[in-house]
Write a structure and sequence with these properties.
Layout (H helix, E strand, L loop, with lengths): L2 E8 L3 H12 L4 E4 L7 H5 L3 E3 L4 H5 L6 H11 L12 H20 L4 E3 L18 E4 L2 E2 L21 H4 L9 H20 L3 E2 L1 H16 L2 E3 L3 E8 L2 E9 L2 E13 L8 H7 L17 H8 L4 E2 L4 E3 L2 E2 L8 E2 L1 H4 L4 E4 L13 H12 L7 E5 L1 H6 L14 H4 L3 E4 L2 H8 L3 H17 L11 H6 L18 E6 L3 E4 L2 E2 L6 E3 L5 E7 L19 H15 L8
Parallel strand pairs: 1-2, 1-11, 2-8, 11-23
Antiparallel strand pairs: 3-5, 4-5, 6-7, 9-10, 10-11, 12-21, 13-20, 14-15, 16-17, 17-19, 18-19, 22-23
The structure holds flavin-adenine dinucleotide.
Length: about 550
Amino acid sequence: MDETFDFVVVGSGGGSMCAGLVMRQAGKSVLILEKTDLIGGSTAKAGGVMWIPANRFMKEAGVADSVEQGERYLDAVVAAREGDAPGTSRERRRTYITEANAMLEFLIRQGVPFERAPHWPDYYDDRDGGTLGRTVHAKLFDVNELGAWKAKLRPNAFQMPVPIYNAMILPLINRSWKAKWTAAKMVLKGLTAKLTGKHWVTAGAALQGRMLQAALKAGVELRTGIAVKEVVIEDGACTGVVVEKDGLRMRIGARLGVLLNAGGFAHNQDMRNKYIPGTRSEWSIAAEGDTGDMHREMMRIGAQMGQMEEMVGNQNMMPPGDGGPAGAQMQLCKPHAFLVDQSGQRYMNEGGSYMLFCQNMLERHRTVPALPSWMIMDSQFIRTYMLAATLPGANKPADWLSSGFLRKGDTIEDLAMACGIQPAALKDTTERFNRFARQGKDEDFGRGDRAYDRFLGDYTHGPNATLGTVEQGPFYAVAINPGDVGTFGGVVTDSAARVLREDGAVIRGLYATGTTTAAVMGRTYPGAGCSIGPSFTWGFVAAKHAAGLGNQSI
Ligand SMILES: Cc1cc2nc3c(=O)[nH]c(=O)nc-3n(C[C@H](O)[C@H](O)[C@H](O)COP(=O)(O)OP(=O)(O)OC[C@H]3O[C@@H](n4cnc5c(N)ncnc54)[C@H](O)[C@@H]3O)c2cc1C
């Protein structure tokens, strides 16, 4: 080995710095290797929220929840497909809930402040054990506190000095005084920051910024621009990694183990074609380093892989220009909009989990062309709600119509023709949807029955916050794709986050977390924060195991 540390982490994802803090607490040396020039991965780009049942903030607020209730909920949502989802098991789910809480307490003791998003419902809140308020996030962070390291933190798109949860009301700016008040507070905080020399970041950048600050303070070593190419296996155990920088290769030893936290394969189109056909890398908003390096390396060494067909889908639209995909989840759940396939039929509840939404799209496409599907809206929608980051109102960018991104018709039949849909079919679907909207009950798909659907809707609208008629021309449509925020399958790990071989045996010294692994949530997404929560938690578990801390509280 050219150099040796106690613990080496591949990738600066969610679990990386958490594991690093555990190692430093145990007095061990730790090195995090990141192949891009920026620290934080998709985690820093993200909303940065973590789903943790029975968390301390719920207790403080007097909200009833328990580890057992969380388990019941995961059983109700995840376990149905446990047989073909090797990343999940009752033991792994129980360990997740227990250790996620231990991890949260540990980080708070390390000086990383968190708070709760009080009303965020579980995505299947109507199932046994479901509730709301299990989602926690880091408090806003003044990134200037990082000094020279500020330039190394991956930025995110949420450039607003307000927690992401509070910002979710902003699309209702035309409707709600609460939204206007939130916008005013944001402007004020932004101005005060300018005067006081602060630079607030929120969401994933606040989380990873605070983690970076804590990691540096604790003496975790971080190096960027270094890609790990291989893991070193000697006598059946992992003893280090082979890295490459500027064309030069070197070996770095790891006395206690190696943790893989290198993300998924969202930006590897060949792997997508093989495992998630029909989906495109350009529809993904994962960070660019998400190229499946460690997935391929794990296959090379004979590790067990699972759930490779899964992604955390994120329905989106592609406006013209270089801005990339624009989210569609919040829009499609607002009143006066619904989704149809290319035959003009609705085929799902437009609310609910984004992962399920995109699974539904891919499933539908097996029998009826549904890639893309069409979001159908009327003038009430356009007047009232935001679309692809534009303010409410018909004044949209000039190239939206000319490029064909936004389709328009004076009647619903005209709109159908503009989208290549049978006019009579779209008219029938619209009339049926309008009947449901008037009565406030979606008889076909139950949109709006769950608290989560209504949460995504417009609370000022009745009788159902997510159902409104599509009846005032002109009518509009945009194409919807099954995009994603990352993939959700990979190497199979046990309840100590150890990588397993194809025969189920443990590979000593090799741990994995995050989207490098087959998710503990199986083929489902139970609530907000079900990727970052597990990434942090399994990083925490891995480091405790490698440092020999067992169940000791730290
Ligand atoms: C806009 C957006 C919002 C989201 N919001 C949320 C949310 O609020 N909550 C939630 O749970 N999930 C959210 N997600 C999904 C979530 O962010 C990701 O699934 C999660 O962050 C993945 O984390 P990770 O720890 O697996 O890896 P990442 O955070 O992606 O980090 C992996 C790192 O490894 C590096 N790497 C890759 N290969 C190598 C190599 N060979 N050598 C060295 N380094 C390597 C990568 O460059 C990257 O920096 C969101 C995603 C996006 C894009």
